[in-house]
Amino acid sequence: MLIIDAFAFCRNSEQQTGKLKLSELARLRAECVSDDGEVEWTLVGNTHTIGYPSLQLTVTGTVQLVCQRCLTPYVFQISSDAKMLLAKDEQAADELDTSLEDDGIEVIVGSKAFDIIALIEDEALLAIPLSPKHEVCPSKEKLDAFATAKKVSPFAALKDQLSKN
User: What is the pLDDT of residues 39-62, one digit of tens each?
Assistant: First the structure.
């Protein structure tokens, strides 16, 4: 855990950077094939032009996912750049979110005990695809063989039984 006072972080225009091993991020690790990989991050605090505290989070890294077409591992490059405005509570966050015209800015609830590791992991999870796939699967021959294989109907045995009667 890495805890900051999010409001003071923004007010003081602070900046932090770091690296996290995949093994330190349990939820992201659950989506990956192995513990190999790491995530680099930069968090910058500031005040948005409309007066709210804002965070700029950049997350990059490399993880191994499973291709949903060929079921083999492949390397995926995480690249996320998120802009967030901080609100004091859920109600203020909802009001601010509806008043914003920019869909590229997220509104989150800040706190004096803000876990930035959880925020980094959330951004990394949002950056990976729901259904990861190679651009071009490396074992195309296997996929072609699977696609052209004769599929046996589950009703074929019943058909044989009926023809015997």
Answer: 999 999 999 988 899 999 999 999
